[in-house]
Amino acid sequence: MQTLADIGEDALIRRLVAGLTFDAGVIAGPGDDCAVVRAPGAGEVLLLKTDVVVEGVHFTAATPASLIGRKAMARVISDFAAMAATPRYALITLLAPPQTTVKRVVGIYTGLRRLAAEFGVNIVGGETSRAEQLSISVSLSGVARKGAYLGRGGGKPGDKLLVTGRLGGSIRGKHLRFQPRLDEARWLARRFAIHAIMDISDGLGKDLSRLCEASGLGFDVAMESLPRTRGCDVAQAWGDGEDYELLFAVAPKVEQRLLREWRKAFPKLELTCIGQLTGQRQGAKRNGGWDHFQ
User: Fold this and answer.
1) What is the mean pLDDT of residues 148-161?
2) 20 to 30 Å CA-CA from 138: which of 7, 110, 111, 276?
3) What is the pTM of this model?
């Protein structure tokens, strides 16, 4: 009998969402960093996202409680950054073994609240339940101006591919302390035509392939150009995952101006051109990166 390990995460998701139908209120369903639906207010759309961290997968029993909560909130805010949207309201679901200490749970919520406050997110409710494994799920809603949010699917052949920050080595601590690139994404959206964008959560090798698939394109990357965390090699920058940096595509004619203006706006954060999109879809095969079931 076929198992999840046989098909992997992406194939599973394709199978689960196949045949889904939506009413007129759904603008974009599965396939991007957030779902997009019509908002009650004129001129806005509503974005929805849920994410989960699980002990033994995203953190360990030794991870400080506040950093668990911080990571749980930061991951979903990073998805809003990938669409240049504004996160607003969060629901928290806590699953925990009964023997979990109250102090640990309070510490987790301290981390959740601190990062939520930093980004203007209101925690408005949630749920708790008994489970064999400690898990925290964050469901987040937010808004963007109609037609102003970004997505993965608009890349064009010849577009330049750029990434923020440095990649690889997240297990050394970055995966617990990364900063969602929300301000940077909004800055990009206001000043430049960003054809395709996403955050790098499962490794550049896998997430670049997803961006290319959404755009119906391939890629050509100069591997030695990858910006690497100190002590990391190219393979780690390509496949370690949990970098939570932005990966995006722009027209070649704006690349140099974008790089100049970026250095002025964000002098402490690198921005690197790593290659370009191509019309050859075979270049977009997945190799490297994280898969929950493989």
Assistant:
1) 95
2) 7
3) 0.87
